[in-house]
Amino acid sequence: MPEAPYHRFAEFIAPGVDRFRFLCSILNELRLSFRPANIAGNRHLFLSPGEVGIHWNQYAPRTVMVAHYDRVPGSPGANDNSAAVFQLIETALRLRQEGLGRWLIIFTDKEELAHGEGIRDQGSYTLAMTLKNSGIGGSRYYIFDACGAGDTLIISTIADYLMRDAARPGVLRARRQVRLLRNRALETARELHMDRVLLAPTPFSDDAGFLRAGIAAQTITMLPAVEAAQFASLLRNKPDIPNALVSRDAQGEHSWELFPETWRLLNSPEDGAQRLTPEHYKRVIRFACELCRRA
User: I need a surface site. Which of 115, 118, 177, 268 has the fewest CB within 10 A?
Assistant: First the structure.
């Protein structure tokens, strides 16, 4: 099996690199089957099983794994979200070696929003609308974001807070679908005997755009064990603190310093490779592969 290109990670997080062209180059070298897709001016990449050239919408994937490759200007973006991109590249290599089908990996553009932009401006929103129209909106969608630092798998519950006050039939259906995705993630972690797993609200990722477009998506991230334990304790003592992750108005009521340091450093110049824990990447890759193995 070709080696995942971690030796080129420093190039990917270097200032000024065209990350879209860089990814295309890596995927070509690894002979992974992929197609670019320009949707509403955003450049996404679709990786699928099979020989090079198979189009992403020529079959119905059971499991779709998503990671954004864009980053905030001025930040290396090592954890947000370069590590997850490279982890999913290795996942694709392993799935190809096993001959597994019915999966799709999407590297998305414009997950990061500029000041004044809203969820409908996310690349994942117009992407999800396109996926719905293509007939694969009913697949199982898992978002991998900030998976490069820590040993504790965080299965996000932020969708519950986003949809808790809505009673429209479509929202109720999405809520049920998210619960099914979450249960599947928990079952997968148990199947792998993962000893460090936490259900907790997390900062929004591409799941915001997917949910707004009507596609249920479950976000997966990682935290160091100490930070995860401290955050779990915080949630027990301050049960309203997830509001600060959903509402900007609520952020003034809770200091951002209360949240895990790993999250506080995202989108900053300090999000460099020195913060990453590559020794734990295999946890994420095993988990992603197992999601695709489960019928």
Answer: 115
Q: Is this structure's pTM higher than 0.90?
A: yes
Is 22 buried (19+), middle (13-18) or exposed (0-12) by CB count in 10 A?
Answer: middle
* Sequential DSSP letters for the chain: -PPP-GGGHHHHTSTT--HHHHHHHHHHHTT--EEEEEETTEEEEEE-SSSTT--GGGS--SEEEEEE----TT---IIIIIHHHHHHHHHHHHHHHHT--SEEEEEES--S--TT--GGGSHHHHHHHHHHHHT-TTSEEEEE-S-SS-SEEEEE-HHHHHHTT---HHHHHHHHHHHHHHHHHHHHHHHTT-S-EEEE-----THHHHHHHT--EEEEEEE-HHHHHHHHHHHHH-TTTTHHHH-HHHHTTS-GGGS-HHHHTTTSTT-SGGG--GGGHHHHHHHHHHHHH--
d(CA 107, CA 89): 10
pLDDT score recorded for residue 257 = 82
Fold assignment, 6-293: Aminopeptidase (3.40.630)
At 104-117, the pLDDT tens digits run 999 999 999 998 99
The residue among 263, 153, 131 whose CA lies nearest residue 218 is 153
pLDDT in tens, 216-269: 999 999 999 999 999 999 999 988 888 778 665 445 555 678 899 999 999 999
Query: Cβ(30)–Cβ(89) under 8 Å?
Result: yes
